[in-house]
Amino acid sequence: MKKRNKILLGLLAVAVFIQLIPVPKTNPPVTGEIAAPPEVKAVLRKSCYDCHSNETAWPWYSRIAPGSWLLYRDVTQGRRTMNFSAWQQMPQDRQNRRRKGVWDEVASGDMPLWFYKPLHPASKVTDEDKAILKAWSDAGPAVPKGKTGG
Question: How far is Cα 103 from Cα 108, in angstroms, rounded to an integer?
């Protein structure tokens, strides 16, 4: 067997073997919804919730290693950094800082992540979305639970 064929066979064996190392693709319970106007929630759901909530839509490539490992890492880190599904558990001052932080990340272009956008074109943050998030960020404290705001 030629050396090249042995290398290819070895790579194929590694590719098959790594599929046996699973990662958990779970969505823990939602324990608190963000208090924000409906248009803000719509933008956040469209562009942020896959990594920053317990409502992740696990795509087909989340079942193929090593991509599954990277996706799991990104979602875990995103939830740890800020989780909209646990928003109500944060103290009000932290909610206010995080609300400002959402706008800062979007305005700088750091979020959504560059490699997320091509795989999820619907997550694109439009100029209209940016205006909605900017107004929400500038509005002050979060809307109290049970209120709609605007």
Answer: 8
